[in-house]
């Protein structure tokens, strides 16, 4: 495998940080990290992109059954074998999620030079994250990172909208990139709407965006907006 391919390296680094690489692929990439500075920088870049998500999630105390299941799976408890087998994967998943939140928060707290976003959101298609959004109110900027590239239909663009409460009309935040990253400037009006918004939406619009200032095409994705 050509680990000197920048696009491949970035994709592997992203999946490594997300924890979605297969066991053998993860082991191979871990060996690459031991000698490749470029690979380590790619991993660090993705860790910084995802760190705000960990900081935005409130820790949740797991139920006692979670630890019972883990102890049983490791042979440390007295829980019957059948019960351990039934609860193994949910228990491990819950435990790993908690560890990810704790370590993500620790990482973020140890990086004083990293500006903390005021709002974050992950726009996903089913279980696949497509865009990571970070809103910085002081800088008046929305930073968009494409997690999984998504081509727009021919002659179309993806447009991001705020859905404020109270039945108010959607307000555009701008066009989303099909791949890579982009920075969207936020006006004072957009910032005001952002503070009263809990949901974002993505619509398919003519190339260059909606001609009316409101969604004209189908809304294909929605996502919660989280205040950090």
Topology (SSEs and partners):
Elements: H1 6-18, H2 23-33, H3 37-56, H4 64-73, H5 81-109, E1 119-125, E2 128-136, E3 141-146, E4 156-164, E5 171-176, E6 181-185, H6 188-194, E7 197-206, E8 219-224, E9 226-227
Antiparallel strand pairs: 1-2, 1-9, 2-3, 3-6, 4-5, 4-7, 7-8
What is the structure about, briefly put?
With 228 residues, this protein is α+β, with helices and mostly antiparallel strands.
Question: Care to describe what's here?
Answer:
By secondary structure, the protein is α+β, with helices and mostly antiparallel strands. It has 3 domains: 6-56, no CATH class; 64-109; 119-227, Sandwich (Immunoglobulin-like), CATH 2.60.40. Helix content is 39%, strand content 26%. The chain is built from 6 helices and 9 strands; from the N terminus they run αααααββββββαβββ. The chain has helices at residues 6-18, 23-33, 37-56, 64-73, 81-109, 188-194; strands spanning 119-125, 128-136, 141-146, 156-164, 171-176, 181-185, 197-206, 219-224, 226-227. A 5-stranded antiparallel sheet has the order 6-3-2-1-9, with helices on one face. A 4-stranded antiparallel sheet has the order 5-4-7-8. Strand 2 (128-136) and strand 3 form a beta hairpin. Helix 1 packs parallel to helix 3 (37-56). It is globular, with a radius of gyration of 20 Å. 21% of the residues are buried. Mean pLDDT is 78; it is low at 79-113.
Low-confidence stretches: 79-113
- Tell me what portion of residues adopts beta-strand conformation: 25-35%
Portion of residues within helices: 25-40%
Q: Averaged pLDDT, please?
A: 78
Radius of gyration: 20 Å
Distance from N terminus to C terminus (CA atoms, Å) equals: 39 Å
Per CATH, the architecture of the largest domain is: Sandwich
C-alpha geometry: globular
Order of helices and strands: HHHHHEEEEEEHEEE
As for the number of domains, it is 3
As for the CATH topology of the largest domain, it is Immunoglobulin-like
* The CATH C-level class name of the largest domain: Mainly Beta
How do the strands of the widest beta sheet line up side by side?
A: 6-3-2-1-9
Structural class: alpha+beta
Give the tally of β-strands: 9
- What's the tally of helices? 6
Largest sheet, described in full?
A: 5 strands, antiparallel
